[in-house]
Amino acid sequence: MKKVYFLQTCDTCRRILKEVNIEGFEKQEIKANPVTVNQLEEMRKLTDSYKSLFNKRARLYKERDLKNKTITENDYKQFILEEYTFLKRPVFIVDDNIFIGNSKKVIEALKETIN
């Protein structure tokens, strides 16, 4: 399976989608088509925690003062399901590999996997 979760209004997501060969990928724009419980659980199986899928740069993270609160794994899951901006983007799934976020290291590893 090849799939990418992204946000169309995110400049970084758009840049990465142009930079990476996404031919053959199923694309899901997370604002128009939010992540489902099953999709999030599928992502979680490929990584170590819901926390690794959580975007601490989201504006709501600061607005809700979440950095000063104790957040459980289940809380991370619920935040991502209720608000699309809490999913760290983009998320690429290639077979049994998951690539989360936009760091150079992650994008380089993704490129090596799909090329």
Short structural description:
The chain is of the alpha+beta class. It is 38% helix and 15% strand.
Description:
With 115 residues, the chain is an alpha+beta fold. Helices cover 38% and strands 15% of the residues. The chain has five helices and four strands. The chain has helices spanning 11-19, 37-45, 59-63, 73-82, 104-114; strands at residues 2-6, 26-29, 91-94, 97-100. A four-stranded mixed β-sheet has the order 2-1-3-4, with helices on one face. Strand 3 (91-94) and strand 4 form a beta hairpin. The longest helix has 11 residues, at 104-114.
Strands ordered across the widest β-sheet: 2-1-3-4
Question: H/E order of the elements?
Answer: EHEHHHEEH
Report the mean per-residue pLDDT as an integer. Answer: 96
Give the strand tally. 4
The fraction of residues assigned to DSSP E strands is 5-15%
Shape: globular
Helix content: 25-40%
Give Rg in angstroms. Answer: 14 Å
